[in-house]
From TrEMBL:
InterPro entries: Kinase-like_dom_sf, NEK_Ser/Thr_kinase_NIMA, Prot_kinase_dom, Ser/Thr_kinase_AS
Record-listed E.C. numbers: 2.7.11.1
Keywords on record: ATP-binding, Kinase, Nucleotide-binding, Serine/threonine-protein kinase, Transferase
Reactions catalysed: L-threonyl-[protein] + ATP = O-phospho-L-threonyl-[protein] + ADP + H(+); L-seryl-[protein] + ATP = O-phospho-L-seryl-[protein] + ADP + H(+)
SMART domains recorded: S_TKc
UniProt keyword Transferase present: yes
Database matches in PROSITE patterns: PROTEIN_KINASE_DOM, PROTEIN_KINASE_ST
Cited Pfam families: Pkinase (PF00069)
UniProt-recorded name of the protein: non-specific serine/threonine protein kinase
GO molecular function annotations of the record: ATP binding; protein serine/threonine kinase activity
């Protein structure tokens, strides 16, 4: 069966099986079966070096500042390739250990829908992570631009975003990694709107038979309901994050309205969303599929 309806049914079954089994491999394996024929960009290959290669990069433009550091577009002097590096201040040993943890996770992930890792190094008092440059902005800037221009994401674009995010998350779960910070700002885009999952600063590599993590972390607005109710976060939380991101993209608004934290928690646990996806603009299959992911 082809088209959005057939794809919705196939992915709906993936989510159902995944949530019933809570087996991280089940989602990944089925996602890859469905998407093994997708045309995909080659992942950027990592140099894997830890040497101080600061002089190999020429800073071009400030891309943004965050709580943990600053991002710049840079030109690699050896081949003039445009990349991006995150400059992070290493203030304490614990902070540097966290940065090393992110680097370890990211450097092992070679996937067409995950931002490509190039290298990481320390220069003077800062730590640098060099990555693939995603010149299409983020999914947040994408839908805000649509809103500004009084445009909407098309049905075709929506399915593409879902499939590519699911493929990336499936790959993480197959490797027993929880992303734990799924939000529109962390979904970067190439110029052709290909998805690139980013920001693994609070991701968790699970060991052995462990299938959940109990640390309260993530962005408040996007925290999984299971973290609120069970003080645990497992693989369904990332799937829920995909659904929440798509609700925001399709409604062009944040998912929850809350003037106080307790109200936000209640709305999140009870699935009370600020806006519903417009059935006049999107198919029942798409709406049902997105809504199904927003249940953990």
């Amino acid at each position: 069966m082809r088209g959005p309806k057939g794809r919705a049914q196939r992915f709906q079954q993936v989510i159902i099986n995944f949530k019933q089994s809570r087996n991280p491999k089940s989602l990944a394996q089925q996602v890859h079966k469905v998407w093994m024929t997708l045309p995909a960009n080659k992942p950027v290959q990592s140099s894997g070096t830890g040497a101080d290669n600061f002089t190999n990069y020429k800073q071009i433009k400030l891309l943004g500042r965050g709580a943990s550091g600053t991002a710049y577009s840079v030109e690699r002097q050896s081949d003039k390739k445009i990349l991006v590096y995150k400059k992070l201040a290493c203030l304490t040993q614990k902070e540097e250990e966290e940065m090393q943890k992110e680097t370890t996770i990211l450097s092992g992930l070679q996937h067409p829908y995950i931002v490509g890792f190039i290298e990481a190094f320390r220069h003077e008092s800062s730590f640098y992570i060099v990555m693939e440059y995603c010149n299409g902005g983020s999914l947040q800037s994408y839908y805000k631009d649509k809103l500004k221009n009084k445009e909407f994401t098309t049905e075709e674009e929506a399915w593409k975003f879902i499939f590519q995010m699911a493929s990336a998350i499936g790959f993480l779960h197959q490797n027993k990694i929880l992303h734990r910070d799924m939000k529109p700002e962390n979904i970067l885009l190439l110029e052709d709107n290909t998805v690139k999952l980013s920001d693994f600063g609070i991701s968790k590599q699970l060991q052995g038979d462990i299938i959940s993590a109990g640390t309260m972390c993530g962005t408040e607005l996007y925290l999984s309901p299971e973290l609120t109710t069970n003080a645990q976060q497992s693989f369904p939380a990332d799937v829920w994050g995909i659904g929440l991101i798509m609700r925001e993209v399709l409604t062009q608004n944040t998912p929850f309205e809350a003037k106080a934290q307790y109200q936000l928690i209640q709305n999140r646990v009870n699935g009370v969303f600020q806006l519903q996806i417009d059935p006049r603009r999107y198919s029942q299959e798409l709406i049902y599929f997105v809504n199904s992911m927003c249940r953990v």
